[in-house]
């Protein structure tokens, strides 16, 4: 009977690992940097919250497995194991949620900034494009506004 609990915690751990691998595979399939940026911005924290939920569930299964061979009847040790497994799973999930809510957005911002400012390839000729500075953007916009005003006259 103890092997069944070992397998349940391993099973939940495998779901956790496969969920994280699936997310990274899905992100790597995006070739367009804008689509990758939008997907990461919208989904990364949500995916990591799911992963940490399954980590908490894995630890709950592992704690529930402890002493299962010696304490098979429904007595005080069963409820102690049940309480400890729920408490640790809740603690891990809650701490992970707080970290992902308050600390991780800074890390995610660095990751997204790196992706945003990475060099792009021009689809027409295959050359690397460069990012314009604010002065260059301002100059182009004023030139375009002047051209549009002349066209409207």
Q: Report helical residue fraction.
A: over 70%
The value of Rg in angstroms is 26 Å
Backbone shape: elongated
Biggest pleated-sheet summary: 2 strands, antiparallel
Q: What class would the helix/strand composition place it in?
A: mainly alpha
Secondary structure elements and pairings:
Elements: H1 2-28, H2 33-65, H3 76-116, E1 120-121, E2 128-129, H4 134-152
Antiparallel strand pairs: 1-2
Helix pairs in contact: 1-2, 2-3
Structural write-up:
Residues 1-5 have low confidence and may be disordered. This protein has one domain. The chain has a two-stranded antiparallel ribbon with strand order 1-2. It is elongated. The chain is built from 4 helices and 2 strands. The chain is mainly α and 153 residues long. It is 78% helix and 3% strand. α1 runs antiparallel to α2 and α2 packs antiparallel against α3. β1 and β2 (128-129) form a beta hairpin.
């Amino acid at each position: 009977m103890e092997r069944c609990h070992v397998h349940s915690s391993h099973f939940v751990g495998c779901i956790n690992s496969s969920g994280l691998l699936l997310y990274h595979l899905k992100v790597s399939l995006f070739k367009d940097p804008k689509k990758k940026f939008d997907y990461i911005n919208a989904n990364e924290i949500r995916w990591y919250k799911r992963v940490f939920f399954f980590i908490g569930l894995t630890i709950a299964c592992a704690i529930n497995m402890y002493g299962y061979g010696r304490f098979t009847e429904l007595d005080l040790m069963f409820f102690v194991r049940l309480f400890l497994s729920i408490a640790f799973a809740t603690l891990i999930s809650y701490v992970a949620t707080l970290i992902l809510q308050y600390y991780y957005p800074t890390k995610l911002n660095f990751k997204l900034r790196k992706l945003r400012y990475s060099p792009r390839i021009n689809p027409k000729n295959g050359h690397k494009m460069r990012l314009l500075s604010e002065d260059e953007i301002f100059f182009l916009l004023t030139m375009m506004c002047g051209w549009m005003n002349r066209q409207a006259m």
